[in-house]
Amino acid sequence: MLNDTILHAERELYLTLLVLAQQQPSAYEWLKQLPTWLGDIKDKANYAHAPAYQASVARLPELTVNNVNLNSDTLTIEASLNESQRKQTTALLKQLMPWRKGPFQIGGKIGDDESGIKIDTEWHSDWKWQRVAPHLGTLKGRRVLDVGGGSGYHGWRMAGAGADTVIIIDPSCLFYHQFMAIRHFVGTADAHETGRYRTHYIPVPLEALPEHSQLFDTVFSMGVLYHRQSPFEHLQQLKGQLVKGGELVLETLVIEGDANTVLVPHDRYAQMNNVYFLPSVAALIGWLEKAGFTDVRCVDVAMTSTEEQRKTEWMTYHSLADFLDPNDATKTLEGYPAPMRATIIANK
Ligand SMILES: C[S@@+](CC[C@H](N)C(=O)[O-])C[C@H]1O[C@@H](n2cnc3c(N)ncnc32)[C@H](O)[C@@H]1O
Description:
Blueprint: H1 5-23, H2 27-40, H3 50-58, E1 65-69, E2 75-79, H4 83-94, E3 101-102, E4 104-106, E5 117-119, E6 123-124, H5 125-132, E7 143-147, H6 153-160, E8 165-169, H7 173-186, E9 199-202, E10 216-222, H8 231-241, E11 242-253, E12 262-263, E13 278-279, H9 281-290, E14 294-303, H10 320-323, E15 324-325, E16 328-332, E17 340-347
Parallel strand pairs: 2-4, 3-6, 7-8, 7-10, 8-9, 10-11
Antiparallel strand pairs: 1-2, 4-5, 11-17, 12-13, 14-17, 15-16
Helix pairs in contact: 1-2, 3-7
């Protein structure tokens, strides 16, 4: 029997935006476009794998879930799995590989994945959350947008931290379906007393959103800015989604240097062919100020290690270790400084 997880999640998204539109008319613009956004992601003409991904989600078994802990580093859905459920679930989740952002665990108990399925993702996204979370203003009761949210791992953590509503956006068809697979097992565990889900996913890029929605108290953009050809446009688009006084959390690749230092890789950077601007922290702060943000502060700088980003059973392609100079891990294969990330917090 097939489940209706995706249909249900989409219905919850419509209802959430309808309720929101009663207070914030700009949400009507989102509602108008939602049928197109949700239709496009299912269209085989746009995404050849869409029907296969949908089928994998729809075949996930119903489990008796005992507890869901959205605050655990390995986002854990405690449930009992019999051997056949375990095999079936593992096989279906593996059809949604590569799993990059996580980790997740389905079945077993927190800290004990003996009887559960541990989705050991390429990234220890929990480490990024540990670096970012202590510096955030409270998320309790806030409306949050996570731009480029990948599988949704951080979005679930934001709900776990008490956000009223989380909307994750990301144009990836695969990551949308990974989110739906996790949603299938989370069920109503993130819901309000009214039963309305708090965590939602819209499969669109930031540029597709109505420009000046001003709907969100906190907007996250983590790991996206360096992929954008026009960083200032990205900053303006993020600003347009924030309420006045709202908080921006921006995490991106940086290099050492002063306020005038910016690296534009000529070709690839760490083998990625879609990397454009890597500023120094000082330059990045200057960009945010130029874009009109206030109280701009850098709260964390960290090198990315080959323990944080690595090949696993759930992501079997090349990973960071293959993208660094084998003789000098402080450099990428192309000879640029190895990945270093900064987290900036600012207000609108
Ligand atoms: C490096 S991953 C970062 C994922 C996650 N935010 C994190 O920090 O771990 C970048 C994500 O941004 C998404 N992305 C790329 N362009 C985007 C855009 N224009 N708007 C929103 N998301 C975008 C990609 O699909 C990808 O999932």
